[in-house]
Specification:
The protein is α/β, with parallel strands linked by helices and 358 residues long. The chain has 15 helices and 8 strands. The strands form 2 sheets. A 6-stranded parallel sheet has the order 1-8-5-4-2-3, sandwiched between helices. Helix 3 links the parallel strand 2 and strand 3. The chain binds zinc ion.
């Protein structure tokens, strides 16, 4: 199969210029703003994040502050209104301090204004903390928007360590799903000749593999493991920026999660859904191509007490089958194991039984 290369992406890649991971990195916020040559920064945050974190950062950047917006909803509507409201103001940077919703709104807002975005995550529940992709709900259905990646990422491990453990576990789920996503990507290169980027793939998969190999003693509250997780999620976001699509971090396992979102099934977080999707897809990869270990994946999730069964995220067995069948209809151009082996109900039934998912 001929190799195709999309040079236009590689010639103009936007990457974070500053990445600070540590205990108390907010002391560098002022330096980062100065280094980015910003003079008027708009702060987007949430009520809880403001009280816990943003209020202290605000004190340090008072001289650069152009205003604050508290995020209320989870929709494009809010971004659109904000863009209209702020349109006349002279701002040259945006800082988002908060969880996924806050960062998504901040990154799209920054893209609309074409100004640098500084990402300060207060949770590490998925790779959106450093990726150029924002997810919203419109009319109850999920939509993805591609924006500019952050110019800087400031990840405070002390804050992240005190964030809800369920969200850290979710972040781990999103990180290890990269191993399945990259297998799907390689499969597509082999079968369809799709462009493949070794650097982006390695960045997405190496931290995930590192964590999987330490699965037996995994503890996300331990600083070294937390650092590995946060670093991995940031690299994931950078991998996405390198190729300009979510390919390195989103394959068949994400299609399963998107199917659950579209069908409105269960109560799992994004990371929990993709983790369960990963167990099923890893099983199929192992069965059909002999690569990977769904058992290792499942054990590592059990070790950190993340859900590994459908029931734990409010799904009945039939819901899982329905979502798997629906997943085959989603984004068909993104070639994955679902397109390659075209599994039917029966095969899915066996997979969820054998893996103990349902
Ligand atoms: Zn994800």
């Amino acid at each position: 199969m001929k190799r195709k290369l999309r040079r236009e992406f590689l010639n103009s890649v936007d990457l974070p210029l500053f990445v600070e991971i540590g205990e108390g990195p907010r002391k560098y916020v002022g330096d980062i703003i100065e280094n980015l040559e910003l003079s008027s920064v708009f702060l987007i945050t949430g009520k809880t994040s403001y009280d816990l974190v943003a209020v202290k950062i605000k004190e340090r950047i008072e001289e650069f502050l152009a205003g604050i917006h508290f995020v209320q909803g989870n929709g494009m509507e809010e971004v659109r209104n904000l863009v209209v409201d702020m349109g006349y103001k002279d701002i040259d940077g945006v800082m988002g301090i908060g969880g996924g919703r806050v960062l998504d709104i901040a990154k799209v807002f920054a893209s609309e204004f074409n100004i640098p975005f500084i990402s300060v995550p207060t949770v590490a529940s998925h790779d959106g903390i450093a990726s150029p992709i924002a997810s919203f709900k419109e009319g109850g259905k999920p939509v993805s928007v591609t924006a500019k990646p952050p110019a800087a990422v400031i990840a405070d491990l002390v804050i992240l360590r005190h964030s809800p453990i369920r969200l850290l576990r979710s972040g781990y789920g999103d990180l290890i799903s990269n191993t399945v996503a990259v297998k799907d990507w390689l499969l597509s290169r082999e079968k369809t000749g799709e462009d493949y980027n070794e650097i982006a793939a390695s960045m997405a998969v190496m931290p995930a593999n590192l964590m999987l190999t330490s699965a037996k003693k995994l503890d996300l509250k331990q600083m070294s493991h937390l650092t590995m997780l946060v670093r991995g999620l940031i690299l994931s976001g950078v991998a996405i920026s390198i190729v300009g699509t979510s390919r390195p971090a989103s394959g068949s396992e994400h299609k399963f999660s998107h199917a659950l979102d579209f069908l409105g099934l269960g109560n799992g977080t994004h990371g929990e859904q993709v983790a369960i999707g990963s167990i099923i897809m890893e099983y199929l990869h192992e069965k059909h191509y002999g690569s990977g270990s769904w058992e290792l994946m499942k054990q590592s999730l059990e070790r950190i007490q993340a859900p590994t069964t459908a029931r734990e995220i409010g799904l009945a067995r039939e819901d899982v089958i329905k979502a798997l069948l629906y997943a085959k209809r989603l984004r068909k151009k993104r070639y994955t194991i679902l397109e390659d082996i075209n599994p039917g109900r029966e095969e899915f039934e066996v997979a969820v039984t054998k893996t103990g998912v349902a």
